[in-house]
Amino acid sequence: MELQPIKAKILAVRIIPNADLALAQPFQLKPHQRSLAILTCTIDDVGYTAMDEATKRADVEVVYAKSFYAGASHASGPLSGEFIGIIAGPSPDEVISGIEAARNVIENEAYFEAINPEGTHSMYAHVVARTGSYLSKLANIDEGTPLAYLIAPPLEAMYGLDAALKSADVQLATFYGPPSETNFGGGLLTGTQSACRAAAEAFKQSILEIARNPISY
After folding, report:
1. CA dist 37 to 9, 84, 103, 116, 117, Å?
2. Above 90 in pLDDT, residue 74?
3. Which UniProt keywords apply (predicted)?
């Protein structure tokens, strides 16, 4: 079947030009990091990917990024969604540049894909050509390293990860054991760009196989 994109929506964005010192402490801001940009969106893994892109496009650092429990359907308010990300930088211009880069990823580049027509069964198989500081830290890899960001429902994620790892010369850098805060699972795989793309495709195909025959083993 042809997979349909499920795109995240940005729900709210705010800039704090000069953060109060009391707020700087819990985020462990460096002395030069006085400005913050805060973003919420409806899909957490897309949000994490977007925050990483911000670090490549501006002089910013991701100082806070969290998924909300149970997902966007059970959010605490209409502007909460499934994810909150906060970047810090030396000036409002820098954090605005960072948040605009993140916005472009959310609106145009990174998305889940629907496995069924209703969109209730989905997966995320996104290849990051070169990581920024945020995903590099999560995966314990050098900045600029290719990464396959693979997420799916619990059983599908475990089966898909195995297929991805066997399909190409990739290594499991970070494992997300199910259930995550949003009841998914998956991992970050690293290798060459071509290997990461092959792994992502194997992940997709294995999950499509499960969707076609869920109890045929």
Report:
1. 17, 11, 12, 36, 36
2. no
3. Bacterial microcompartment
Tens of pLDDT, residues 164-215: 999 999 999 999 999 999 999 999 999 999 999 999 999 999 999 999 999 9
Three-class secondary structure assignment of the chain: CCCEEECCCEEEEEEECCCCHHHHCCCCCCCCCCEEEEEEECCHHHHHHHHHHHHHHCCCEEEEEEECCCCHHHCCCCCCCCEEEEEEECCHHHHHHHHHHHHHHHHHHCCEEECCCCCCCEEEEEEECCCCHHHHHHHCCCCCCCEEEEEECHHHHHHHHHHHHHHCCCEEEEEECCCCCCCCEEEEEECCHHHHHHHHHHHHHHHHHHHHCCCCC
Confidence of residue 1 (pLDDT cuts 50, 70, 90): low
State how far the alpha carbon of 99 is from the alpha carbons of 18, 38, 72, 132, 210, in Å: 16, 8, 21, 14, 37
Structure tokens at 26: 């819990």
Closest CA to 66 of 50, 52, 45: 45
Whether the pLDDT of residue 100 is over 70: the answer is yes
pLDDT (0 to 100) of residue 139: 98
My answer on whether omega of the bond before 179 falls inside 30° of 0, hence cis, is yes
Inform me whether the pLDDT recorded for 72 exceeds 90. Answer: no
**Ramachandran angles phi, psi of 165, nearest 5°:** -65, -30
